[in-house]
Amino acid sequence: MSTPTDELFDLGLQPERTLLAWRRTCLAFGIASLVGMRFTVDALGLLAVVGGILGAGLAVLAYALAATGYRRSYHALQGSGVLDRSGLPMLLAAGAVLAIGVLCAFAMLADLLG
User: Which pTM does this prediction carry?
Assistant: First the structure.
């Protein structure tokens, strides 16, 4: 006979799929921030470096929070069966996208003016 902690709460492994999706998303945000920094550093200088590092840092933080949220949700589903999660990883991911967008906007503006 198996114990409750040995049984899968969700046979479809939805929390695991969600974690993998967050990992891919955060990796893409971090790489896009650094690539954007690389291609805009000539036009924007220090602003490109700050934007790239800010976007990559937010992506790393969102990655860590998504992993922590997964562990918390896994234990909550195994224990009480009630899922409680924060929206902070999504907020940080949105911040990374915003940093990438601002970096691109400044690059286009610098190209138009210079």
Answer: 0.65
